[in-house]
Amino acid sequence: MVRRLLDDLKQYAFDISLEVILTINVNELVSESDLQYPFPIKVVKNQYPKGFGENHNQAFKQANGDYFCVLNPDVRLMSNPFEKLQQELSENAGAIIAPIVLSPDLTIEDSVRYFPTVQSLFKKLFKQYDGRYVFSDNSPTLAVDWVAGMFMLFKSKDFSAMGGFDEKFFLYYEDVDICLRIWKSGKKVLVCPQVNIIHDAQRQSRKNLRYMKWHLNSMGRYFWKHLGRIPKINQG
Fold first, then answer.
1. R_g over Cα of the chain
2. Considering the chain, what percentage of its residues have pLDDT values greater than 90?
3. Is residue 98 within a helix (H) or strand (E), and if so which, with residue range?
4. Which domains does the chain have, with CATH numbers?
């Protein structure tokens, strides 16, 4: 998956200033010949597996750019998403922006949602409501509650101001948490429907008990941290 994503990035290496920080979070051999690309790649090899937030906070400390993109290896790029997203992020005074996320069959995933509440989770459990925003691919950039963590483009100064991800979330809900904190700081979370990517979602929490435990623990932490303290979002 990483090699395919790097090959996608290679297509746009001469259009944008790009550096890649690749975290090897499991015991996997990576040879130098696998990483011969026309942009710098810094490899971080963990001695033990770390959580999503800790890995990206660790990567950010080595990042040099004005923008910081959180990017999962199971993402594929059909076009250059960065230039348009950077433009929209600046023009709309946002701290973070995301594209529309498509599944491999090109249907829109539920990667842009309203903040979860106890009521909304019960509705989702009974398949009455899944909390997603609905829009078309020609909709203008708009402010939203939160965007999922497979692709999040931050202004580096704002990611730093937030202190990065809350590392107490080992996996799941760290993306919801940082978006909520951005709104509480008076800044915006944006989505640009005119840019899209493909995501081959793994959905491990639906089939692996360990991942399900992480999911439930993170859900509980989120509600303990934010319940009753969710700001009203101005969608303008």
1. 17
2. 67
3. strand 94-102
4. 67-226 (3.90.550.10)
